[in-house]
Amino acid sequence: MGPKMEDTPAHESPQPPDAASPEQVVRGVESLGQTAPMTTGDTNIYCLPIIGQIEGHMVLPPQNKTTKYEHVIPQLVAVEQNDKVEGLLIILNTVGGDVEAGLAIAEMIASLSKPTVSLVLGGGHSIGVPIAVSADHSFIAETASMTIHPIRLTGMVIGAPQSFEYLEKMQERVIRFVVSHSRISEALFRELMLNTGEMARDIGTTVVGRDAVRFGLIDAVGGLGDAMAKLQELIQERRGAPRQESVVQ
Q1: How far apart are the first and last CA of the chain?
Q2: Where are the alpha helices (DSSP H) in the chain?
């Protein structure tokens, strides 16, 4: 007789294929800050948190709470590729951070083919603004705030015309992105960005909850339930949309 297969004990049910092992959970927390793997059998929505300071090309001190863009980009690629994931929920509570890294994340979210909804909790400041508006629909909590200010650098800056031209061009990229992905006008966004009367020692404007909606920066005031309901609505609309077939010339 051939080798006999051992029966599964009655008190131990086999794990489903999509269940995460303890080792996978630990690896996910250590590398991505996620407690669940990309593929789960009980949900069609993937949650992407943008928390703390967005870390770009420079490694921040270990005591800083950071979102590393080299961790976020692979997650966005996986969302696009995974058929089980039908929608993306972005949760923001960030002070901002690296401009190019934040703008890269925003561009990737905006280019996803799947429905996306963002929710600003606590704060979505600085480069967090483009990320918040990059989703198909955006929400902000009643007490959450967003700070809009010009781009600035920390550390030594070479005092050359090229440096200022680079900053100006980068700022124009941010302005164009925000205006094209929200209902705010360019004139109003520039006015909020260059406001000198609100902050005592800085330039810019902090908008809270309903003001962000009134200015056209965010679509609606709401919480997690509102964001989830809207995302499911967008998913249902996408399911019902006819599939576009490529035409061979």
Answers
A1: 62
A2: 22-32, 69-81, 99-110, 128-133, 161-180, 186-193, 210-214, 224-240
The kind and range of the H/E element at 95 are strand 87-97
Question: Pick the catalytic residue: 125, 137, 149, 181?
Answer: 149
- Check: pTM over 0.70? Answer yes or no: yes
Residue pLDDT, tens place only, 66-120: 888 888 999 999 999 999 999 999 999 998 888 888 899 999 999 999 999 999 9
Contacts of 20 (CB under 8 A, 6+ apart): 28, 36, 37, 40
11 is catalytic: no
Domains, the chain, with CATH or none: 45-238 (3.90.226.10)
Could you report the per-residue pLDDT of 177-232, keeping only the tens digit for each?
999 999 999 999 999 988 887 765 567 889 999 999 999 999 999 999 999 999 99
Q: pLDDT tens for residues 195-207?
A: 887 765 567 889 9
Task: State the pairing for strand pair 220-221/137-140.
Answer: parallel
Burial bucket for residue 96 (CB in 10 Å: 0-12, 13-18, 19+)? buried
Active-site residue, from 118, 125, 126, 138: 126
For residues 118 and 88, give the distance between their C-alpha atoms in angstroms, rounded to a whole number.
8
The CA R_g of the chain, rounded to the nearest whole Å, is 21
Look up residue 86 and give its two tokens: 């039908």
> Is 126 a catalytic site residue?
yes
**CB contact set of 110 (below 8 Å; sequence gap of 6+):** 134, 135, 177, 181
